[in-house]
From TrEMBL, chain A:
Highest taxon of source: Bacteria
Transmembrane segments: 20-40, 52-73, 85-106, 118-137
Key words, A-Z: Membrane, Transmembrane, Transmembrane helix
Name the UniProt record assigns to this protein: Uncharacterized protein
TrEMBL record, chain B:
Coiled-coil intervals, chain numbering: none
SMART domains: HTH_XRE
Keywords annotated in UniProt: DNA-binding
HTH cro/C1-type domain location: 5-59
A GO term for molecular function: DNA binding
One Pfam family this sequence matches: HTH_3
InterPro entries found in the cross-reference section: Cro/C1-type_HTH, Lambda_DNA-bd_dom_sf
Name of the protein in its database record: Helix-turn-helix transcriptional regulator
């Protein structure tokens, strides 16, 4: 198991290793704050500033994570950057198409999905699409 | 585009990882270059040529050459 992990670590580029290290804290903090948000937002008697803080805190963590990603994009080598940008383009394109389909289906009254679910699934599609496209593109360049 | 990267690297006894370190790119990039799956940018092609004391056209050959 350790040998497998070491092999995986060696297969990562220095920029990717730095990105994984840098993204650990914002990711953990995001999960903790998202759980806190889910639990605390239902408490009665919360003032508006507290509610806003509960909403913005996980979003700020995600912005921190995004800043780490942008730094990785700047630091990585040209093939890695090409893979990342291709994956982002695929994810953005397919996410946009899925959103359009959802909007038109909702407008036409064909489906009656709650807005909250649509927003959540759109985000997941974007992230999942990026992950899938990145995995497939990386397999093209072993 | 074809290239003589593997031949030049073998002549110096370097592994893909060693060449990647010298060029400050990932090993994945070296492998993709050697297998012809990826063509380098002009700055990287110049770095490669400088490392092997040659000219770009001595290392990278157009298709059919």
């Amino acid at each position: 198991m350790n040998a497998l992990l070491a092999r995986y670590r060696d297969s990562l580029s220095p920029a990717l290793r730095r990105y994984y290290r840098a993204s650990l804290w914002p990711s953990l903090l995001f999960i903790a704050l998202a759980v806190l948000h889910k639990w605390a937002i239902r408490l009665p008697g919360l003032t508006l500033p507290v509610r806003l803080a509960l909403v913005l805190a996980p979003v700020l963590c995600m912005a921190w994570l995004f800043a780490c990603y942008l730094r990785f994009l700047r630091d990585c080598d040209e093939l890695e950057r090409r893979i990342e940008l291709d994956a982002l383009a695929w994810a953005a394109g397919s996410g946009l198409l899925a959103s359009l389909v959802a909007v038109f289906l909702l407008d036409a009254g064909v489906v009656a999905w709650p807005a909250r679910q649509v927003a959540g699934v759109s985000g997941l599609l974007l992230v999942g699409g990026y992950g899938l496209a990145r995995m497939l593109l990386r397999r093209r360049y072993p | 585009m074809n290239n003589r990267l593997r031949e030049l690297r073998d002549a110096r006894g370097w592994s893909q990882g060693e060449l990647a370190e010298r060029l400050e790119v990932s090993r994945q990039t070296i492998n993709a270059l050697e297998t012809g799956k990826y063509d380098p940018s002009l700055p990287l092609a110049f770095r490669i040529a400088r490392l092997f004391d040659g000219r770009i056209e001595d290392i990278f050959l157009p298709d059919g050459a």
